[in-house]
């Protein structure tokens, strides 16, 4: 549904995005994460047809991103949403509905349903007098006005209070359940982890790791085993009448089991803990920095 093939953007001699290649399948939620300046916004804007790539190509819903036809299939939410401050939410959304030639009765229904789903109160308040969370909801409603199959959201919930943030993340997740294809960037890795099927990690303009969360964890993360025994073994801590050891491999778990048996004890429970996306991200970032240092040396 979204296809980027060697997308590249340079500003003078500076490479903002270096050969980004990835596909987002129909109905998938794909997250792009990376530190400030990694090239996330530039990538999303190229896909939304707002920045012309220096190289490579991309399609959205089968249409080249440079075409106006592509825009009929896309809802784009920019990182900052400059809205017309003098308009009310309803008049602003009607204005965009007209731009997309949405029939009046369809627009009325869609605006009402979307604002209800987004729990937006004070629809007839001037946008300029709305809170940040409310204007973000209006911007999200705008991205849905043409009922697009594909949504590209740049940091949909950044800078909002925790309650509004959760609301927007859940709303985005519901859009995915309703069959939309979603590509979004985020700083908060917990959000990415909670709703994405696949993730790309960007650093210095390049995608440095990508895949399903399980795949990324396997390749760049660690698995830890929490082993609980009824006798003390070396390195264990006492917890509520049991002894807790942490092992990083099944061999280490086996060694704990043997140590417990040697003391006439046994393993009571084993719990597996996977790396969070944050740990995966930090591992990849550290590896990248180490590679850069080697390159510079
Ligand atoms: N118009 C421009 N002219 C020159 N450099 C630019 C321009 N737009 C972006 N850049 C640079 O390109 C790099 C990538 O920027 P981009 O906004 O895509 O990063 P990002 O990953 O979205 O960062 P953030 O998380 O802070 O939003 C940055 O170094 C930025 O300064």
UniProtKB/TrEMBL annotation:
The keyword Cytoplasm does not apply. SUPFAM superfamilies: P-loop containing nucleoside triphosphate hydrolases. It comes from Halococcoides cellulosivorans. Keywords: ATP-binding, Nucleotide-binding, Transport. It holds the Pfam family ABC_tran. This is ABC transporter ATP-binding protein. Residues 2-229 form the ABC transporter domain. InterPro entries: AAA+_ATPase, ABC_transporter-like_ATP-bd, P-loop_NTPase. The keyword Calcium does not apply. Belongs to the ABC transporter superfamily. GO terms for molecular function: ATP binding; ATP hydrolysis activity.
